[in-house]
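Technical annex, item 7. During the second reporting period the consortium partners agreed on a shared format for inverse folding records so that results from different sites could be compared directly. Each record opens with the tokenized structure and is followed by the designed sequence. A conforming record, contributed by the partner at site C, is shown below for reference.
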């Protein structure tokens, strides 16, 4: 009888476009989310947590660069329904606002935090799962709600460690761009595909540059890998109108507004958008948020297809080095805008809404690049095990440390080789190790080893310095907590 072939072992690899997070990365994100939530809460927003799974119908077709309803999302069929992982936190909010419209206050102000998933081609710094942190106001037609979001975004960036001068928030209005497209002859339902390509092309200005965008406005563009992206097919005059819009930014917000009025002359929707930008600028100025933090910038359009009015984007202005050591600006870490028709898909009635989404992973990467977070996270105090039969005593020690607010653990591996226990403490980046065997218990003492100082002495100190700077202390058991606390305080 033939033997069954041995099944191959599964490969232990992270799926392409995804990544794992360890230790400090997880705690740093949690700390950032907590600080962001505190700002949102201070502004009067309530927390909301929605399911990671939505129906494809509820999510809608709003992702850029996709042609099918379930392209760009991770979707599967269940009975007669198609379900998908959410690609952002805004589409689920629209569903909630419609589903619970009789129970929620109006306006409804909510914030939400969590992972989202996009079935897109991964690349350097571009992942298929990433965290977002949103705040939205549903039911407020006034652009005062948009201005408030921009102000709150500025406060949030400063709260998490991006000082004034290291970021700028750019504000534009989709109505202005719609007016420009109308002037360029791109209005009407039959031009919907061309308008979508133009929007996405403008949104890539910082990545592709002027020539790259102009190519996408025309016949199309071939990237470095040889992939060809079809263009909008605009002629030279039409492309000039769009490029003029992108170059409309002037030395002040007022001057930019004047230039935009010239560009949308003859378009009612364009004029309405310019009026809204002017109102937002006045509201920002009244609150003391000047061009050092928030500016009017026509180059901002945002790629998602559901925006209907003001749009905004937060860009970090400092330089970092890319994977090849070349300097570059860090770029966008947050964006949002007004989407007055998103809830209408469910209710048939217009429901004004506006909001912002912060890319938490990008923001964390920016802070690490500037050295404002990162490094090795301090591990727990490790209580070593010299005598298996005294495990209850070791557990009492660790309980005393934890009850005093000190992160601590008992070594639970094989205690036979004591050297391995100290190697374990080193690998955990433990600041302190507690050592007690039969002699110590008999005398009512413990040995406390300063792991950080010990490592420094081992690397740098002479014999005389080693004698003058002991890294291990013998103290009465009753003084263990005080000594550990003193060492931790000394390590900072």
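Designed sequence (site C submission):
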């Amino acid at each position: 009888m033939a033997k069954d072939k041995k099944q191959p072992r599964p490969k232990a690899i992270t799926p392409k476009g995804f990544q794992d997070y360890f230790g400090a990365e997880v705690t740093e994100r949690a700390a950032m989310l907590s600080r962001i939530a505190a700002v949102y809460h201070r502004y009067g927003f309530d927390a909301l947590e929605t399911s990671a799974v939505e129906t494809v119908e509820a999510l809608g077709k709003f992702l850029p660069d996709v042609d099918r309803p379930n392209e760009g999302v991770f979707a599967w069929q269940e009975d007669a329904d198609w379900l998908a992982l959410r690609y952002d936190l805004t589409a689920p909010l629209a569903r909630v606002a419609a589903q619970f419209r009789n129970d929620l206050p109006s306006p409804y102000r909510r914030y939400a935090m969590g992972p989202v998933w996009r079935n897109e081609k991964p690349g350097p710094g571009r992942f298929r799962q990433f965290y977002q942190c949103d705040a939205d106001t549903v039911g407020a037609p006034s652009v005062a709600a948009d201005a408030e979001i921009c102000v709150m975004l500025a406060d949030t960036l400063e709260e998490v460690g991006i000082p004034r001068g290291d970021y700028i928030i750019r504000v534009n209005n989709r109505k202005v761009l719609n007016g420009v497209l109308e002037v360029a002859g791109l209005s009407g339902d039959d031009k919907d595909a061309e308008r979508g390509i133009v929007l996405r092309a403008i949104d890539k200005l910082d990545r592709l540059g002027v020539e790259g965008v102009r190519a996408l406005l025309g016949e199309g563009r071939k990237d470095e890998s040889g992939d060809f992206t079809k263009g909008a097919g605009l002629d030279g005059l039409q492309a000039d109108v769009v490029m003029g819009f992108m170059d409309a930014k002037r030395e002040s917000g007022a001057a930019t507004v004047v230039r935009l009025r010239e560009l949308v002359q003859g378009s009612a929707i364009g004029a309405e958008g310019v009026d809204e930008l002017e109102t937002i600028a006045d509201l920002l100025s009244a609150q003391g948020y000047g061009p050092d933090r928030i500016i009017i910038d026509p180059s901002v359009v945002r790629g998602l297809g559901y925006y209907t009015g003001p749009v905004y984007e937060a860009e970090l202005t400092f330089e970092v080095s890319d994977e090849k050591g070349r300097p570059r600006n860090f770029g966008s870490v947050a964006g949002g805008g007004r989407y007055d028709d998103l809830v209408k898909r469910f209710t048939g009635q217009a429901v004004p809404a506006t909001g912002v989404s912060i890319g938490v992973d990008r923001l964390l990467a920016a802070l690490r690049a500037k050295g404002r977070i990162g490094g090795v996270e301090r591990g727990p105090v490790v209580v070593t095990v010299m005598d298996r039969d005294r495990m209850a005593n070791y557990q009492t020690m660790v309980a005393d440390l934890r009850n005093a607010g000190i992160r601590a653990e008992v070594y639970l591996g094989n205690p036979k080789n004591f050297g391995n226990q100290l190697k374990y403490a080193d690998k955990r980046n433990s600041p302190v190790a507690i050592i007690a065997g039969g002699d110590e218990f008999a005398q009512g003492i413990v040995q406390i080893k300063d792991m950080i100082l010990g490592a420094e002495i081992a690397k740098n100190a002479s014999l005389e310095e080693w004698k003058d700077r002991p890294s291990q202390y013998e103290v009465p058991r009753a003084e263990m907590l005080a000594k550990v606390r003193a060492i931790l305080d000394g390590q900072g």
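Confidence is low (pLDDT under 50) at residues 65-69. The longest strand covers residues 310-321. All partners now use this format for quarterly exchanges.
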